[in-house]
Specification:
This protein is mainly α. It has one domain. Helices cover about 95% and strands about 0% of the residues. The protein has 1 helix and no strands. The chain has one helix spanning about 5-40. The radius of gyration is 18 Å and the shape is rod-shaped. It starts with a helix and ends with a helix.
Length: about 40
C-alpha cells in the first residue's frame, strides 16, 4: 500500500463521515420538528 492508496482511503472515509453527519443532522431536525408538531396538537 503506497501513499496514494492511503490518501484515497482517507478521502473516502472523510466523504462518508460527512455524509453520515449530514444524515444525522437531517434526522434530528425531523425528530425535533415532529416533536413540535405533536406538542402543538395537544
Amino acid at each position: 500500500m503506497n501513499d496514494r492508496d492511503i490518501d484515497r482511503v482517507l478521502s473516502d472515509l472523510a466523504a462518508e463521515s460527512l455524509w453520515y453527519s449530514h444524515v444525522y443532522e437531517v434526522r434530528s431536525a425531523v425528530i425535533s420538528s415532529a416533536a413540535v408538531i405533536s406538542m402543538s396538537d395537544v
